[in-house]
Design a protein that fits this description.
Blueprint (H helix, E strand, L loop, with lengths): L1 E3 L15 H6 L9 E3 L10 E4 L4 E4 L7 E5 L4 E5 L7 E9 L4 E8 L4 E8 L5 E6 L12 E3 L5 E4 L5 E6 L4 E7 L13 E6 L5 E6 L8 E5 L2 E7 L1 E3 L6 E7 L2 E6 L4 E6 L6 E6 L11 E7 L2 E6 L2 H5 L9 E4 L7
Parallel strand pairs: 19-23
Antiparallel strand pairs: 1-14, 2-26, 3-4, 4-5, 5-6, 7-8, 8-9, 9-10, 11-12, 12-13, 13-14, 15-16, 16-17, 17-18, 20-21, 21-22, 22-23, 24-25, 25-26
């Protein structure tokens, strides 16, 4: 089933606070910082992504639905303010630099509306708001990845599905549907983090559920019926969340343990060797929820999202920080 753009999606909500355009013209060439503390410590930035053109991070908010922009020099502004009085939550976020788009998973808590928002990074306007209920009742939007063609892949935390969206056509459809994607065990999520392999051959999905493995699934991009569990050595344990590829390796934020897992495959992701970053960072509690590539380095986002989802108070400070890749050696 294919769903088209929501009837109200063309309405352009007031998006910008501050002179973002002015900041673009004065951006420095200084290296990215090792850490960015977010000024609003109520955001709970579950996900984020880096735009190499503007040298900016965009982070979501599980408490407000806003999208915050953090430039390389630390300048911070609101890129998008969620509609007031509607109790939105923004989760998975990914930049498509080629198409100059920002994709965001959004949830309205009052009525459990699940939408995919698409923004034009240049005009800062929201182009699309695709309602997943029009695809299948009960669908959820957790995380997003984009391939080289600009198509987006969306994980579903409560159903055994992955969706594919086409911003140019304004459509979204069920792309993969398989019991391997189902939630299981004591975990509250099934499909969670999602990433497209660097050669576009596979879509990789992580599962947060603590039941029977596999924790990671490989889906052939040209044949979504071809889906298998990735065998990791040693076995990947714990709550796998947002992930990204960097120089052939797959890095995954292990939200419960508060560290990052690195996986390397020599057989097209049928199996993978696992290394885990030692928990040496000064993180007050586990809560690193995604990792993203920025200018050849790896950055993680600390949000303590699991506390929010279980009704507890998260522990700040919320921040974006550089992962020391030497810690895997």
């Amino acid at each position: 089933m294919v769903v088209t753009q929501s009837s109200w999606a063309p309405i352009l909500v007031g998006l910008v606070v501050g002179c973002i355009g002015c900041a673009d013209s004065t951006e420095s060439d200084e290296p990215l910082k090792d850490e960015y503390l977010l000024s609003d410590q109520t955001l709970v930035p579950e996900s984020g992504s880096f735009d190499p053109t503007s040298r900016s991070f965009y982070v979501s908010s599980a408490t407000k639905g806003d999208i915050t922009r953090v430039q390389a020099d630390g300048t911070e502004s609101i890129f998008f303010a969620a509609p007031t009085g509607e109790d939105w939550r923004s989760l998975g976020t990914i930049v498509d630099d080629t198409a100059r788009r920002l994709w965001v998973c959004a949830q309205r808590l009052a009525d459990e509306t699940q939408e995919i928002w698409v923004f034009d990074l240049e005009s800062r306007e929201r182009e699309l708001a695709l309602n997943l209920a029009d695809v299948e009742a009960g669908s959820t939007c957790n995380d997003i990845a984009v391939d080289r063609e600009g198509l987006a892949y969306i994980s579903d935390s409560e159903n055994p599905r992955v969706y594919r969206a086409d911003a140019d056509a304004g459509t979204v459809e069920i792309w993969a549907d398989d019991p391997l994607l189902s939630p299981a065990g004591s975990g509250i999520f099934g499909g969670n983090g999602i990433a497209v392999a660097e050669d576009d051959a596979y879509v990789i999905v992580s599962k947060t559920s603590t039941g029977t493995p596999p924790r990671l699934l490989r889906i052939a991009r040209e044949d979504p019926a071809n889906i298998v569990g990735i065998v990791t050595t040693p076995e990947l344990e714990g709550f796998a969340d947002g992930m990204s590829f960097l120089e052939g390796d797959l890095y995954i934020a292990m939200v419960g343990a508060g560290n990052v897992a690195r996986l390397r495959s020599e057989d097209n992701w049928a199996t993978a060797a696992l290394l885990v970053e030692p928990p040496t960072r000064e993180v007050s509690v586990p809560g690193t929820s995604t990792v993203r590539v920025a200018e050849g380095a790896l950055y993680a986002i600390y949000s303590d999202i699991t506390k929010v989802l279980t009704g507890l108070e998260p522990v700040p400070p919320f921040r974006i920080f550089k992962v020391d890749l030497r810690s895997f050696e």
